[in-house]
């Protein structure tokens, strides 16, 4: 081979190389990750999802790719986000961050596998046929956090037994909101307490809601389970502190951020389980053969610094029963 032939072959190889690299990248299966939450409040959850993928042999950038889409609490964006991901020929949709995300994914495709992450009963909401045999192309996990409002109400009243008027903050744009209010009203009647419901689905309404509960002399506020409220975690904790208002939240992250008290499932572990399910499906398991996962670990967290700032003394029974006490 002469020098001219060698240079020509070398040039051809260099020209082909970028196309080869791109072809290899395109060959990676792609997970479309769509969420009703925001990336800022979900960093630890995405990390847990990736850990679950790794547990099944899938590492992002090596043998799987992930494309992210975030609704940031604006649930009407989710159908378009689902369609956008499906147009990217994803191998799987991870529809997490609340019921609206899962519902949008299911309506968008009956063939692409879906791993959902919701807070309500997936059978009652029509996502699956049953917990044990979900059927079709859909499975995932439920946190059941939307079902825990009466439990959270009871814990709050153990802390503040003399409060007569209790506030409940709900998002009217969130599917389970009506049921959340019904269950809270029934629980409040049972124990002889009055419930005052305030609504918020955007930033302006959230500020108004906190002002309203003070005007109505609400003694304590329960923030119902809703992904939009998760996106506003730091802001709500700050509003509660500024107004001297005791507030109960759904996830540990709120208490860690300075909130008074929280009760709910270990959401981080459930996202890891979702990553495991995604990996198993990519490996060939059918969604219909994977039962819907339910939480086994619940976290009751009390922030003593927040309690001190509100002038509250935590009963010893609550401190003993807490899974975590933040000093």
| Whole-angstrom Rg | 23 Å
Overall pLDDT metric: 92
Q: What is the class of the largest domain in the CATH system?
A: Alpha Beta
Strand order of the largest sheet: 7-6-8-9-10-11-12
Domain count, please report it: 2
**Element-level helix/strand string:** HEHEHEHEEHEHEHEHHEHEHEHHE
- CATH topology category name of the largest domain: Rossmann fold
Describe this structure in words.
This protein has 327 residues and is an alpha/beta fold. The chain folds into two domains: 3-144 and 266-297, Response regulator (Rossmann fold, 3-Layer(aba) Sandwich); 146-265 and 299-326, Response regulator (Rossmann fold), CATH 3.40.50.2300. It has 13 helices and twelve strands. The protein has helices spanning 3-27, 43-55, 78-86, 99-108, 149-159, 177-190, 203-215, 227-231, 233-242, 252-256, 267-282, 304-309, 316-321; strands at 30-35, 65-70, 92-96, 114-118, 138-142, 165-170, 194-199, 220-223, 247-249, 261-265, 298-303, 324-326. Strand 1, helix 2 (43-55) and strand 2 (65-70) form a beta-alpha-beta unit. Helix 2 crosses helix 11 (267-282), helix 3 (78-86) packs across helix 4 (99-108) and helix 5 (149-159) crosses helix 6 (177-190).
Summarize the topology:
Elements: H1 3-27, E1 30-35, H2 43-55, E2 65-70, H3 78-86, E3 92-96, H4 99-108, E4 114-118, E5 138-142, H5 149-159, E6 165-170, H6 177-190, E7 194-199, H7 203-215, E8 220-223, H8 227-231, H9 233-242, E9 247-249, H10 252-256, E10 261-265, H11 267-282, E11 298-303, H12 304-309, H13 316-321, E12 324-326
Parallel strand pairs: 1-2, 1-3, 3-4, 4-5, 6-7, 6-8, 8-9, 9-10, 11-12
Antiparallel strand pairs: 10-11
